[in-house]
Amino acid sequence: MIKYTLLLGLIIISSTSCASINSHKIHQTYSSENRTERYFTEPVTLEKQEQVKALINKNWYFEENLIKGDKPNKVITHCEGLSEALDDGYTAENDRLQSAINAMQNVCTIWFHMGELSASKSSFLGDFKHNLDLPKKMPPQLSLIISNDDERRLAKASSWEEMSHINKMEPLNKNQAIYYDNSGGIQKLTVMAKGDYNNDGIEDMVLYMVNTVQKGSYSSTYGYVITRLTANAPYTLIKQF
What we know:
The protein is about 30% helix and about 25% strand. The chain has helices at about 1-25, 50-55, 80-85, 95-115, 135, 150-155, 160-165; strands at about 30, 65-70, 70-75, 165-175, 175-180, 185-195, 205-215, 220-225, 235-240.
């Protein structure tokens, strides 16, 4: 009887300890600014990993027609089909449409990486906030890169601010803001999701950047996964796509 009582007590303690450990996990979160409203007629709720993963095969409300020489055209209706067609050498009908297709593919890629996020054990992203100090802490790869000279400067730069010299910031919401640099660059930065991307237990962040210039036709989009390894440290780039 004593042995049984002792064993039962150990089981209860063990179960309580496990529950305590699990309760301290930081579950992945997904921003409402997730671009899904541009692709699907019905609102898309992103609260669980499986919901994000489902975006890759979910049909859009529209179709895209891609071409490849004298081969039959491909009608694309979801992210997976778009990725397969581009890998197979299919393109849009002209350069203007190809730019839009590239941006779509980038969003699909971001959704894919968002789907790779898992719960984390610790986080140093709690004080993240859009403001004019943020570019000083962000990696230089977030900069607007247009020329070969920009590429050369990027190799030596230590921060986004050092590259772009941001002089104005327009907040849109807690996850999204527009940054203006001193040479006419306009960059719209969105926090898409947070979670552990590289399985090191530390919370990471998926970002989406749209680049344009004042009085110009240039545009580009990029995705990033960044992290912070200690409190008050600069942000570190894990992946760019």
